[in-house]
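Fill in residues.
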């Protein structure tokens, strides 16, 4: 990417969004961050970032935005599983309505490129137990229960991707789709509620890692540095209206295996992995999946992951140390 360009980033107070903002500013670019809370953004983002508080689902407010930018990266969405279960209508609105408003803005502003941040959940319960790696054109093959409230997220992401394809075809908006694996490493906040962060915090405190499922679901992961590199590559070289998986194939493993690796990497095996499954799925976790993502399409653009899952947990361990999360010399 050329130095000194302007990037508009939505959802910039999320983990990956905030890390992208930091990288872009470090590289000499200008960033306009669209956020819900300006106060939160002032804490999390570099002072060089221009921060605008706006509700992306507010049609009138979005139509009033006239921001010159070279690139748009659209992260904004509710991503907490418990919220998906408790407030599915709001989650749907945060995905579908916001994405269409961002694309309408892109239609007016005509940036050089746009990346929409999607999810591996669009693949549904696609079974890759035979070792098959899911390609981007298989996103509609896996079943998603349309009558389950928790399905608001994968179905919303599928609809948002279709909206991207429609705007690319009909209005020539240069939008690409990035389907992210679970991303972590340096910079994860100590109060992050996702499972990898819960596992890391437990291990750092010398507490057993507790699974609230049997841990049979297959996980796909990627280091934060590799994910950011993938997003910028898609922004620059991806094809309009197409999707790209961003996942390090070498890290694919079950949730149980990932928990055991976290226990070994962070607590040096001094904690156990146990199971406690509530009958009511109060944590809102998605159904088990055997999904294994292929990253071949992104690698064909020149992308190459650099960190394995153990190193990702060691990087996360450093962030926890910096935040004061430690136990009896375990880290």
């Amino acid at each position: 990417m050329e130095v000194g360009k302007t990037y508009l980033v939505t959802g910039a107070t999320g983990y990956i969004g905030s890390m992208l903002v930091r990288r872009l500013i470090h590289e000499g670019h200008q960033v306009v961050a669209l956020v819900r809370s300006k106060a939160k953004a002032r804490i999390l983002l570099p002072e060089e970032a221009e921060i605008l508080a706006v509700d992306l689902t507010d049609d009138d407010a979005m139509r009033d935005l006239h921001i010159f930018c070279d690139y748009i990266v659209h992260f904004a969405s509710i991503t907490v599983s418990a919220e998906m279960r408790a407030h599915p209508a709001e989650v749907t609105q945060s995905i579908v309505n916001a994405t269409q408003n961002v694309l309408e803005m892109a239609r007016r502003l005509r940036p050089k490129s746009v990346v929409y941040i999607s999810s591996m959940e669009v693949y549904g319960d696609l079974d890759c137990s035979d070792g098959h790696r899911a390609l981007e054109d298989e996103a509609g093959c896996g079943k998603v229960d349309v009558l389950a409230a928790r399905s608001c997220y994968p179905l919303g992401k599928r609809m948002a991707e279709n909206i991207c394809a429609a705007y690319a075809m009909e209005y020539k908006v240069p939008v690409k789709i990035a389907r992210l694996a679970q991303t972590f490493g340096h910079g994860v906040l100590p109060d992050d509620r996702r499972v990898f962060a819960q596992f890391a915090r437990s291990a750092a405190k010398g507490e057993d890692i507790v699974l609230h499922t049997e841990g049979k679901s297959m996980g796909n992961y990627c280091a934060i540095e590799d994910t950011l590199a993938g997003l910028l590559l898609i922004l620059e070289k991806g094809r309009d209206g197409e999707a790209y998986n961003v996942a390090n194939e070498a890290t694919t493993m079950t949730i149980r295996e990932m928990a055991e690796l976290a226990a070994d990497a962070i607590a040096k095996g001094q904690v156990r992995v146990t199971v406690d499954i509530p009958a009511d799925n109060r944590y809102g976790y998605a159904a088990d999946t055997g999904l294994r993502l292929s990253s071949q399409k992104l690698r064909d653009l020149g992308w190459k992951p650099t960190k394995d899952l153990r190193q990702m947990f060691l990087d996360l361990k450093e962030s926890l140390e910096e935040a004061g999360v430690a136990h009896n010399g375990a880290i």
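Residues 88-109 form the longest helix (22 residues).
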